[in-house]
Give the backbone structure.
Amino acid sequence: MSEAASASDPETTTGTALGRGPAIRVLPRLDGANRFFWTSGAQGVLRFLRCERCRRYVHPPAPLCPYCEDGQGRLEPEAVSGRGRLHSFTVNYQQWIPDDGPYVVGLVTIDEQDDVRLMTNIVDCAAAELEAEMPVEVTFEQHEDVWLPLFRPAGGRAGAAAGEPAGGSR
Amino acid sequence: MTDFLERRAIISGIGQSKIGRRLGRSAVDLTVEAGLAAIADAGLTRDDIDGLATYPGGGMGGEAFAGPTSPEVQDAMRLKLNWHDGGGEGPGQIRAVFAACLAVAAGLARHVLVYRTVTESTAQGSGGRQGIGGAVSGGGRIPRFSGSFQWMLPFGAVSAANWLALVATRRMHEFGLRRDQLAWIALNGRANAARNPIAVYRDPMTLDDYMAVRMVTTPLCLYDCDAPCDGSTAVVVSHADYAPDAPNPACHVNAIGTALRGRPSWDQFDDMTTMAARDAAASMWKRTDLRPADVDTAQLYDGFSIITMVWLEELGFCGKGESGAFVDGGRSIALDGPLALNTSGGQLSAGRLHGFGLLHEACVQLRGQGGERQIPRQPEVAVVANGGGPIAGSMLLTRGAG
């Protein structure tokens, strides 16, 4: 991220080189409830808890299905496609860490269920090409015992012309 | 209409400590100054105060954010209390006022001192704004996080600025909101702050200034973010039967809005363009015969400008998605406009008193004590809204018993 230009002039923001995230990753504390999620990237897949009975995905992890009225819906981790849509995004310029460069915070809705979202970083995408509802796919970045799910434009179409949704039609 | 219990409460007194950047004074010191001012303003002495409430106290979010606990203030003022309360969970910062209203209605107390104290400017010193998790740097061991922060901090989404920027981007996508429209929240605040002698920032601001200032997190620029300051705001919530004896016009509580129906987080809330303001506002209007058209002044939370836009829509002052057009040019929200908005300068220009500055200003205006910034046509009804994202509360106040 050393090449990141100063963000003092908003006119230049679209041409600024973006990092893949903050220079220092603050990591989750792993426990019995969240370990499956944060280590799932070791197998290259994204997993969420899913109710064995009503089949809804539940996130963040919960002890029992919140949708099954009797509280008896058992939840098990299940792999999803890793594809989603970019619900919203922001390019962060504030240097919360001294001398950090800009990066993209995204909010991604997974394709399997439109009320399950992840806050994440959008990578391999120029700021000018970011667009709400663009299709994205997961890619993992390992830090110690944690695999952070990041997202990039779907179909490896980074650099596609602005206005043309990366990855084609939905 | 049903006899909703908050209607038995009034705000009988208001007070503020000195407010400013890096005052270097303790939170208890500022709180006592504000508290004594509010008690005197209500025509009372500290012996009359039998209730005490704050948001949040108890060290939540760090001492400079939390302010002193209610037991600390009780002790500093040697108050004899029938009831006290503090905490960070509930419908926004004014949850403490709501609790006080219910306490006087229930007969648990007659005069409740309610305060909100921040010393965030002194805490920041000469450094910049910090994100949640503090100043992360290369040296030393970085703590790990559980709970809701684990879903945000790893990705550098470390501040409400980031989380609300997601709300703003989504609004741009769904409604076509533009930055030069959003700007009017900041420009209106600065214009009003010029008439407020204790506002933190009073220099004139133009649309060009706004468009040129540095980005914090797109589309939010520096002027979309409120100004950390030190200060304490206090009000006295009394039983409504004290109104005839109060030396200043009583501000009557007409309705409070407290609902939270969406999922309570920054990432999973069903409608990212509104979040909890939708629920709080809807619940408030169900408790009153007043309608948005009856409101003369709106003191709407502006920790970030985009929150004010959400409140304008959800409180019904314009249609959903129409706040950009509503504020464009600033006429509709100006001091002499149909809905005078954030007349002290709000948190963006007067200083981040964390919701209570807006409550204080609503009372100032209803009492007709705004001086150079008094709304020309004496307001009869004010709305106050606190909070943003998954935390929200709102309140209608009237001059006279409505």
